[in-house]
Amino acid sequence: MIRVVLPFHLRTLAQAGEEVTLQVQGAVTRSSVLDAIEARYPVLCGTIRDHVTHERRPFLRFFACGQDLSHESPDAPLPAAVASGAEPLLIIGAIAGG
Amino acid sequence: MGSVRVLVGTRKGAFILTSDGNRKRWKVSGPHFAGWEIYHMKGSPADPNRIYASQSSGWFGQVIQRSSDGGKTWEAPGGGVTKSPQGMPQGESNKFVYDASAETGHALTTHQWYDGTQHPWEFKRVWHLEPAPNDPDTVYAGVEDAALFRSADGGTTWRELSGLRGHGTGPKWQPGAGGLCLHTIIIDPNNPERLYVAISAAGAFRTDDGGSTWKPINQGLRSPYIPDPNAEIGHCVHRIALHPSRPDTLFMQKHWDVMRSDNAGDLWREVSGNLPTDFGFPIDVHAHQPETIYVVPIKSDSEHYPLKGRLRVYRSRTGGNDWEALTKGLPQRNCYVNVLRDAMAVDALDSCGIYFGTTGGQVYVSANGGDSWSAAVEHLPPVLSVEVQTLA
Question: Which of A77, B78, B165, B326 is geometrically suited to a Cys-Cys bond with B170, CB 3.0 to 4.6 A?
Answer without folding.
Answer: B165
